[in-house]
Design goal:
The protein is mainly alpha-helical. It is built from twelve helices and six strands. Strand 3 and strand 4 form a beta hairpin.
Length: about 350
């Protein structure tokens, strides 16, 4: 029997009214939530458009690279070196195979050795690091490195942590400190003084700082720094340094490029080995001394190196050539007259 046209009872009418109100409230809530989400998503898109430029490659001229193949090879080599330095050896080997990049064993060997020793240090195994430090003792001393002493100190502290049972072994091992007595007298005295509290518990003594776990992180950093210095490697991979520097320099270069294009300036950025302006990258990225010629107010380079005159004053080679008069050079500071050929190049 059809109920169409039949009036609803008061109870059913109330239930229907409540259901309709709930549906209306739900729809309004969904619409409001969708509006908030849509607003957030649209802001993300605008932020991406504002911070990323699809023409970012245009900042660097193609003339920087000899060829596209050379560019690809340099990039692949930088990635492989970074992977080796980070200990991701299997990934580096796979990249070499897929890119047909030929990497000599002599290039891999230092990274393999460093990672082997660092893995042992992370597992608190001092054996490989001590063996390496002893075999390179003379060269480490020439670098004023305290790596070997710190390794012996850490081994001695591990013996102290073993309690009174390890006291005799610790005293016997202390003989390894004898070659370092002159330079590390204070540290040795502290370690020997801690033996007094061994039976009472070193962790509750004034020497509890010797058991701090931070010593293991410190020895890893010391080994990495000194080993890289001895082997002629950078502590940070060139790829990570280039990436960090690029993050700082790229926005500045993009602004300069936009200004050059707007003002239609030509020839401002024509040299492939120079930037149109000086970009401050911070003290972390200072790797060598910088000399600016006091005459021409230009930073010296390989093609225009600093020259030391007989009188001791230093100017750039370009300035020297400009000051030559009649085959003689008069120093702009003394002024002492001298032969330009007597100037000597300075390497900072």
């Amino acid at each position: 029997m059809s109920l169409q046209g039949t009036p609803l009872s008061a109870t059913l009418s109330l239930v229907m009214s409540q259901c309709c109100q709930k549906i209306k409230d739900t729809v309004q809530k969904l619409a409001s939530d969708h509006k908030d989400i849509h607003s957030s998503v649209s802001r993300v898109g605008k932020a991406i458009d504002r911070n990323f430029d699809s023409e970012i490659c245009g900042v660097v001229s193609d003339a920087v690279w000899d060829s596209r193949e050379k560019q690809q090879q340099i990039l692949q080599m930088a990635i492989v070196e970074h992977l080796y330095q980070q200990g991701m050896l299997s990934v580096a080997e796979e990249l070499c195979q897929e890119s047909t990049l030929n990497v000599d064993l002599d290039f891999k060997q230092p990274f393999l050795e460093l990672n082997r020793i660092l893995e042992a240090l992370h597992e608190q195994d001092l054996g490989p690091a001590l063996e390496w430090a002893i075999s390179h003792r003379q060269r480490l001393l020439e670098l004023n490195s305290s790596l070997e002493f710190k390794l012996h100190r850490l081994h001695f502290i591990r013996l102290l942590a073993g309690g009174p049972e390890k006291q005799l072994e610790a005293l016997s091992y202390a003989r390894h400190f004898q070659p370092f007595a002159r330079l590390h007298q204070r540290e040795i005295q502290v370690m020997m003084g801690s033996l007094v509290y061994l039976r009472l518990g070193l962790e509750k003594s004034p020497y509890c700082h010797l058991l701090d776990s931070s010593h293991w992180a410190e020895i890893c950093e010391t080994f990495t720094r000194d080993a890289c210095s001895l082997l002629g490697l950078s502590v940070e991979s060139p790829l990570s340094v280039s990436f960090a520097s690029g993050c700082v320099a790229l926005p500045v270069l993009m602004n300069i490029k936009a200004v050059i294009e707007q003002r239609q300036c030509t020839g401002v950025w024509s040299h492939k080995d120079e930037l149109p302006i000086e970009i401050e990258l911070g003290m972390k990225c200072w790797y060598h001394s910088v000399f600016a010629c006091p005459i021409l107010r230009q930073q010296t380079s390989d093609s225009n190196p600093p020259i030391k005159l007989i009188c001791g004053h230093v100017i750039s080679r370009d300035a020297l050539n400009k000051l030559i008069n009649g085959g003689k050079l008069k120093c702009p500071y003394c002024p002492m007259e001298q032969n330009p050929a007597d100037g000597k190049r300075i390497i900072f």
